[in-house]
């Protein structure tokens, strides 16, 4: 993103200007636009409903800018989403007979923050974007048109070699549901979720990878039972890295474990485990990946029938457990996700590139009760057209096995085509 240097001279400001004001002030504009078509088709539980296919054409625009002077910077950004074709259930528009496409119309302040940044220290206060590690626990949900941001104070300290301390105190999460959140009876889809949340990461870089210890304390103030049940305390560790084997072969690896239990006002007494392991092998233009993820279940959880499972309410959930988004809330019996993927990269196609084509398979089952929920097939092609433009086509096919095992457990197919512009 290009930077425009605005020189504020003493003569431009008049006789009241001081030498300090004559220093350079940098302005960085923000323009980020996305046009998307999304189709969602599912086998619904209502056989008398004529049309169970959703077709959404949406346009999202973010615009704003950042002014910086020395170590200080002020950023403001507005975000708006327009439904050009609203034949879909946005989650808050009342069109409950269609499948959900979670991109409601909205106009909002997406970010407004003040930042102090030096080499060893960054302090950010205000409404801001927060992405931690691979976004499994805290992320901005960038896949959706309306981004998730946080009203928070964040401190990042890097004053010790190879060590980073990253601590956030967030009083509100601004959700993807936009200005109409909570309408039409969708009270578990609010515009914002207030609370007292702490996200803490301490990471250390080694020659083999980065070791991270983390603690996430989620304290929801909302009175809606579905939201109160996501108040939790999660403590864990993560190790991720990569190493070359030969000139064209590279091995990558990831392992993580966490333990979660109820916290603050959560009426459910439970404890559950999270674990993941992944290996990747890059061979020239190909990348092969295989992995396993567990979101465990506590069958003895009190206050709720059928058990209660590990939840990650502030994650970028679309990245995990299949792109059909069947597991945004972990079922009471938990999830085991065994997955494998292959990707192929073409660095250049004329003046465009890279082009990346990928395919992913998920086998999704429960942590207990031996339920095979279903299998999912994902495919995607992305192309960087030029410095500012990129395009994507994407497909997800979730095939349920056996009887429906949780709310929304139906055969589901989704297709996307989109183009992005970023200044």
From TrEMBL:
Residues 1-22 form the signal peptide. Residues 69-160 form the Alginate export domain. It holds the Pfam family Alginate_exp. Keywords: Signal. The keyword Magnesium does not apply. This is Alginate export domain-containing protein. It comes from Sphingobium vermicomposti.
């Amino acid at each position: 993103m290009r930077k425009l240097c605005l020189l504020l001279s003493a003569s431009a400001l008049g006789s009241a200007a001081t030498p300090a004001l004559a220093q350079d002030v940098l302005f960085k504009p923000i323009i980020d636009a996305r046009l998307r078509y999304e189709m969602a088709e599912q086998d619904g539980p209502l056989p008398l409903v004529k049309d169970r296919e959703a077709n959404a054409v949406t346009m999202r625009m973010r615009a704003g800018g950042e002014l910086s002077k020395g170590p200080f910077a002020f950023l403001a950004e507005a975000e708006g989403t327009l439904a050009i074709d609203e034949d879909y259930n946005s989650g808050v528009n009342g069109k409950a007979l269609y499948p959900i496409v979670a991109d409601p119309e909205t106009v909002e302040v997406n970010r407004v923050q003040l930042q102090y940044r030096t080499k060893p220290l960054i302090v950010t206060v205000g409404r801001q974007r927060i992405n931690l590690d691979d976004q499994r626990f805290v992320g901005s949900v960038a896949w959706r048109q309306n981004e998730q941001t946080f009203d928070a104070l964040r401190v990042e300290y890097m004053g010790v070699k190879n060590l980073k301390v990253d601590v956030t105190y967030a009083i509100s999460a601004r959700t993807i549901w936009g200005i109409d959140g909570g309408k039409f009876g969708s009270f578990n889809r609010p515009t914002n979720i207030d609370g007292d949340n702490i996200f803490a990461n301490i990471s250390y870089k080694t020659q083999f990878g980065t070791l991270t210890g983390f603690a996430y304390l989620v304290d929801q103030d909302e009175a809606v039972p579905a939201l109160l049940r996501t108040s939790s305390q999660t403590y864990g560790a993560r190790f991720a890295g990569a190493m070359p084997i030969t000139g064209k072969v590279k091995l990558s690896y990831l392992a993580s474990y966490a333990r979660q239990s109820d916290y603050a006002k959560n009426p459910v007494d439970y404890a559950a485990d999270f674990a993941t392991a992944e290996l990747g092998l890059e061979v020239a233009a190909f990348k092969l990946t295989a992995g396993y993820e567990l979101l465990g279940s506590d069958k003895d959880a009190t206050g709720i029938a059928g058990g209660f499972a590990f939840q990650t309410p502030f994650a970028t959930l679309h990245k995990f457990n299949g792109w059909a988004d069947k597991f945004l809330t972990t079922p009471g019996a938990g999830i085991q996700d065994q997955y494998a993927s292959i990707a192929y990269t073409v660095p250049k196609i004329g003046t465009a590139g890279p082009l990346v084509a990928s395919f992913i398979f998920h086998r999704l089952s429960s942590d207990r009760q031996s339920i095979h929920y279903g299998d999912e097939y994902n495919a995607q092609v992305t192309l960087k057209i030029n410095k500012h433009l990129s395009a994507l086509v994407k497909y997800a096919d979730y095939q349920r096995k056996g009887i429906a095992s949780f709310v929304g457990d139906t055969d589901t197919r989704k297709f996307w085509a989109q183009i992005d512009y970023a200044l």
